[in-house]
Amino acid sequence: QVQLVESGGGLVQVGGSLRLSCAASGFRVRDYAIGWFRQAPGKERERVSCITSDYDYTYPDSVKGRFTISRDNAKNTVYLQMNSLKPEDTAIYYCATDLRALCSGPVTYWGQGTQVTVSS
Predict the structure, then answer these.
(1) How far apart (Å, rounded) are the C-alpha atoms in residues 65 and 82?
(2) pLDDT tens by residue, 12-25
(3) pLDDT of 34-68, one tens digit each?
(4) What are phi and psi of 29, to 5 degrees?
(5) For the chain: N or C, fewer Cβ within 10 A?
(6) Is-contact 20 44, C-beta < 8 A?
(7) Contact assessment for residue 101 and residue 33, using Cβ atoms and an 8 Å cutoff
């Protein structure tokens, strides 16, 4: 059974940092693309990062240079390090996978999400 559990969200001031964790079970994170997404109230869901089995990474311009995705194969966990946080980064953050090699396309399996709030 595929399961993803996010943690690490919270309240942080502008310019601060958080590290989100996505603990996976039922599959090996090293074998598939895993993405981080976020959704703010009234806005569409946005993919903020993705890591493939070959360590290819993707970031949109909105977070490039501030967010870093990484993976610990031994812990079967994917991380999202978020630095220089801005109020517009406030959202619920989800990790997700479709158990495929690529970061593009629809996603089937989602975690429950973790709230990130950046205060000014």
Answers:
(1) 10
(2) 999 999 999 999 99
(3) 999 999 999 999 999 999 988 888 889 999 999 99
(4) -65, -25
(5) N
(6) no
(7) yes
